[in-house]
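Re: weekly structure request thread

Next one in the queue (187 aa):
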Amino acid sequence: MNLRKNLPNYLTYLRILAIPLITFTFFIKGDWSYYLSTALFAIAGISDWFDGYLARIWNAQSRWGQFLDPIADKLLVATVLMLLVYTDRADLLPSIAIVCREILVSGLREFLAEVRIGVPVSKLAKFKTAAQMIAIGFLLLGAGGPAWMHLAFLGRVLLWIAALLTLVTGYAYLRVGMKHMTEESGV
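Done, posted below.
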């Protein structure tokens, strides 16, 4: 097997394997669990960037990677948001908005792929993802971080910002999807 061809997919597998590890470390007693779960989440988040980058520069994109990469991202984000909400370290409403948007966009992308319409990721959606990932990192570290940084508060604010951007970008994707759905059905 060619490592160059398969490394992007291995990084995606790493992200999926990080989910139970983050969950386990999240519930360990002691302050170091904040750092460990945050570090695992950060590694998983960075691996997402690297797998896409490497797949592009090495021309190692595969159908399997195109299928699995967004699923790994959504599983990671949804799981960590559920953990944070469960322990009252994140607000429920923005977390629901983020998870629902991810499901909506996944369904739309699947539909649009069937009618051979590609929907590129917008710059605003990339900004939303960055805000969301930073918010989750801050919320994971939360009380484990230096008190003067107010990470829990900053994480909650960023999560609300990410949720707002989620609604805006989700609506933009929905508009594109509805345009193609109504064209096909003649509505």
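The two ends are 50 Å apart (CA to CA). Helices lie at 3-26, 32-57, 63-86, 92-114, 123-141, 151-185.
Next request, please.
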